[in-house]
Amino acid sequence: MLRENNITILGGSFNPIHKGHVEMAVCAAKQYDLKNIVFMPNKSTYYKDNECFASDEDRINMIRLAIEDYEYMSVSDMEIKRGGVTHTIDTIRELKAEDPERKIYFIIGGDSLEWVEKWVEADELLGSVTFLTAVRGKTDRKRSKNIIEGICSRHSDAEILLLDMKDCPLSSTDIRDRAALGQDISDMVPEKVADYIAEHDLYRRKPDGDR
Fold first, then answer.
1. Which residue among 11, 47, 158, 211 is least packed, with the fewest CB closer than 10 Å?
2. For the chain, what is the radius of gyration of the CA atoms?
3. What stretches of the chain adopt beta strand conformation (E)?
4. Average pLDDT over residues 117-145
5. Residue 35 CA: distances (Å) to CA of 23, 72, 74
6. How many alpha carbons lie under 13 Å from residue 127 in its C-beta half-sphere?
7. Is 206 left (phi over 0), alpha (psi -120 to 50) or beta?
8. Cβ atoms of residues 110 and 144 within 8 Å
9. Exposed, middle or buried: residue 32 (CB in 10 Å: 0-12, 13-18, 19+)?
């Protein structure tokens, strides 16, 4: 039986949130019967040199619009409030301090899985959460299994599970590029997010000399 206070984190910049992010959460909920999935955007000042970065408020608003039809999904500004450069292990420690007995799941893409051992305090992190990693297709599944076996052989407390989902090759960078040119992005982001981006003129390139 799942404890009510168990939590599943889906972190990232969400600049902007797209259909692939939501699909990962939906698949995780269905495959592992998860009841509390929290989208956790990181602080935008971490990317202060990126002129195309939407504000913290805009990113949170877009997440809320994207997930409002899913009662088991929510958004947290924990990392934004913490400010500065924040790492995943800081968030996990804070969540554990609130409830040491809670189980924490952490959703990552297959590309992130390859680098997770290089994350700050990786050994503690791998022993503190259950990673759910998205895989797409047979080749990706085989590669992911090999990576997982390697990680678990080096970190005895690690628990990494595969998350099956349909191929959804979306990129926030591509979305921003298309939005900057005024191109249609309705096939990449939820409809309400596309409307929000258009209404608030997010990611549009300013004419030369316009400051």
1. 211
2. 18
3. 7-12, 37-41, 73-75, 104-108, 130-135, 159-164
4. 88
5. 15, 5, 11
6. 9
7. beta
8. yes
9. middle
